[in-house]
Specification:
Elements lengths: L7 H10 L12 H11 L6 H11 L3 H12 L2
Length: 74
């Protein structure tokens, strides 16, 4: 189903916050990517690196997302 103005990032945020899905880590969220880069001491983060880290967080990727958001704003 598609809704005008609702993209992948919005859907993923709804999965985490409203539907309480346990394993969502969004590539589209810049704060999550910034948190990963800070956590692992990276100057840049490729999609492949992101996917590898995301798999490491499974099945609790949503919990990791919350921590990555926090790290990104430190």
């Amino acid at each position: 189903m598609t809704l005008k103005g609702i993209g992948k990032w919005t859907a993923e945020m709804m999965l985490i916050h409203s539907m309480e899905r346990r394993d969502v880590v969004s590539w589209g969220d810049i704060a999550i990517r910034r948190g990963m880069m800070k956590l692992y001491g990276l100057d840049k983060l490729t999609k492949d690196q992101f996917e590898q880290y995301r798999l490491n967080y499974s099945p609790l990727g949503s919990v990791a997302s919350i921590y990555l958001w926090e790290i990104s704003f430190e």
